[in-house]
Each structure stands twice: as structure tokens, then as C-alpha cells.
Amino acid sequence: MAVDYTGKVKVRGAQIAEIAVEQLYKDPSIEKGIIELNTGSKHGVVKTETSNDINEQAYTGQALTSDGNFTLFDYQVNHVKGEFKVDILEDTLRDTPFADDMSAGAANIDSNRFMQLAADQLGSKMAYKNQVQRWTGIDAATQAAIAALTPGAGQGSITAAMQTKVAALTPSLRNGWLANSLYNAYNATKTLGLGTYIKVTGTTFTSSNIALEYSKIYSAIPVVQRDDMEKPYILNAPLEHKALIKIANNSVGAASNKNFLDENGVISYNGIEINFVQLPADVVMGAPKGSYALNTDLMSDDNSMEVGEKDNDSDVKFFRGITAWSTHVARQEFNLIYGG
Amino acid sequence: MAKEKEVVDFVNPFESGVSYETFLNAIPKTSTVEKYCEKNLEKYQIEWLVNDLKHFKNK
After folding, report:
1. Is A124 on the interface with B (CB under 8 A)?
2. Is residue A247 pLDDT above 50, yes or no?
3. Are A163 and A156 in contact (CB under 8 A)?
4. Quick check: A43 and A294 in contact, CB under 8 A?
5. In degrees rounded to 5, what are phi and psi of residue A251?
6. Closest CA to A133 of A334, A296, A318
């Protein structure tokens, strides 16, 4: 409950203004529109997907048999509500530089500077944890269900390696896009089971093989989606890939070849943008822009912290943030999972 | 003249719907995954398969 303030030093002078805070990776997926952000989505809201087909037949002048279909199916947004909460007692700060802005009197232990720092940092960490959960979150039930799937090498079955990766994930309150891609009921019959995705068999990425492996991924992208300008195909890759790609691009030797384009920090392979996110090692998820969706009532819930007195007769402060959101995967038949 | 012994169909693990259990059961006891697949699959496919089967067997 108390603040864990280790390595205190005897204060002999003023504190250097800037405090070395944690560095957290900021996922650009929402900012760049790679993720479809559905704000204002209340729990229970319905979203509809559609696809259709229509076929040409020889003209006869007579009444023809219908040849085509128009398919729609709904899914319901089921938010999971969660809470982040930390209690803090500032008494520990009395012999630290934060005491400078505590008012005189033994009862006064509030440091405004510390409270602001704590709210900022805890809010940032909360947003970061939500961000990670959106990609690799998995609830215990889904984790067990994926472990129980029958693995196989062919399309339409999960690889045993992916089952190992999923088993190693730390269970969370909700499913992120990876878990939802692998196991869902986003189909016309609402049947839970292995998701629909294009499987690209995977291996361990190194700077030596990354270009070859991305060529396999590129080849597996459906041809229409590969060239679609309105919803361009995006590859979501683990953060480590950025370094492997840069090392591969800067390799020395007669066979050296820049396989990846790096323009102002935007890295692409044969025109397909690569978005670096918190996916497990050796897993790449590809989809047309906007196919992975985040449903939330209010986006600012992501890092909003409420601060207050825990009890009337104590000095403990609470920091709490409440969130309600869910992820969804649309247009599943065009999405690919390398290593899936 | 006696008929030649019928060649057993190769069970391709990369075919949709073929589980690892079905594939492993199709391999004769005297053979290995590598030997069973060598004439029917590419080298990189066999390497990948052997690696993935390690995860399957460790489940």
C-alpha cells in the first residue's frame, strides 16, 4: 500500500527537475487507422458483416434461375469491464525531495508533484497494458479451447507451434486480435471454433531469413486484397522485426540486397506496410486495413485515472481507472497468420 | 504372375483436414517422418513439419 521508495538518499540539495520515467512503446495502430476504432459502442451493440455473389448466365430471353447470393451476419459487441487500482500512502515521501511541496504540519503529507507524476505514470501504464492486451490478450476459457484444438499442417487447422505460443500467454480478462483470430464464433452459425485465416507456416526469424519469410507472407496475401487501395493490406509484426529488417537491409556482401523499403520510418515489403506491434515472436498477422476492430464506449477511458481519498479516517489515496472494451476480427477469409 | 503389393497412399499432412494423429498413424513403424515424406514433400516442408511435430508431441 505504501509507496515503494527504494534507494533514498539524504537530501543535500534541490532535486533535478526531470524524473527518469519509464519508456513505454506507443502502438501507432489506432493513430494510423490500421485498427478500426468503433467508439460509442455500448455493450450489446450489433455490427453487421456482408458479402455477396452474382454470376452471369447465357441470355435466353426466358426466366432464368437465380445464381448468386447476398449474405449478412451479425455479431454482438460484448465488452468486458475491467478496473486498474493502486492505493498509495504518501507518508513514505516525507524524507524525500517530494517533501518540498508538502504543507507544514505533521498531518500534511500530500505532494502535488508526486500525485501528478503518479497519475501520469499509472495512466500511461494502464494505457500500455490495454494496448498489449489488444494484440495478445487471451481469457482462460479461450486459452483452454485453443489448447484442445486438433493441430495439423494444412489450411484449416492450427499448428502445434502456435498452440505452444498460446499456452505461454498470460491469461487476461479479454481476447485480443490474435486470440480472436485463432478462435471465434464470427460466422453465420455463431459456432465457436478455429477462426478462418490463411495459414503461412512459420519458422524462427533471423536477419538472414527475414526477407525470404516475408516473401512467403507476401505470396499468401489474396491477390485482390494485395492491390486494394481503399483498404490496403497491412502486416502486423512483432517489434523485434524492425531491427531484423534494418540489419538485413544493411547487410554487407556481394549478395546484399535491400528487400525492405524504409521511407521516413514507414517500412514496407513490396508495397505492403509493416506495422510493429506487441505480438509474440515469429507471429505475423496480416489483414486489410480496418479488419481488426476495437470497440469501446469512450477511448479516453484508456488512460483516465480517478484519484481520491480511500477512507475518511486514513491518508491512503486510491488511483483507479475503469475500462470496457472488446476486440473484433472482420473479413476473416482475407486475413493471414504467419505461424498460425 | 503374382500382383505387386499395392502401394499405400501417402497421407499428406499439408492437406486440409489431415490431423497430426492421422498422419503419424499412417507412417509405418519401421519408418520416420523424414523417410516417409522425402519423396512427396519439399525439404523445407519436412523440416517445418518435424519441428511442429515436436510441439505436438510435447503437449
Report:
1. no
2. yes
3. no
4. no
5. -65, 150
6. A296
Q: How far apart are CA A293 and CA A326, in angstroms?
A: 8
- The proportion of chain A whose per-residue pLDDT surpasses 90, expressed as a percent, equals 74
SS3 content of chain A, % helix, strand, coil (to 5): 25, 25, 45
Q: For residue A334, what is its C-alpha cell?
A: 482475407
Distance from CA of B21 to the nearest CA of A (A): 8
Distances (CA, A) of A26 to A69, A129, A148, A160, A270: 43, 11, 34, 31, 25
Distant-in-sequence, close-in-space partners of A299: CB < 8 Å, separation ≥ 6: A30, A37, A39
Asked whether residue A187 carries a pLDDT value surpassing 90, the answer given is no
Q: DSSP code of A89?
A: B
CA distance B13 to A334: 23
* CA gap A226, A218 in Å, rounded: 8
How wide is the angle at C-alpha A57 spanned by C-alphas A54 and A60, nearest 5°?
A: 135
Distance in angstroms (rounded) separating the CA atoms of residues A50 and B26: 41
Separation between Cα atoms, residue A71 and residue A51, nearest integer Å: 5
Phi/psi of residue A234, nearest 5 degrees: -125, 140
What is the C-alpha separation between A59 and A40, in angstroms, rounded?
49
Q: Is the pTM of this model over 0.90?
A: no
Note whether B36 contacts A: Cβ–Cβ < 8 A: no
Cα distance from A145 to chain B (closest Cα, Å)?
14
Using only the alpha carbons of chain B, give its radius of gyration. Answer: 13
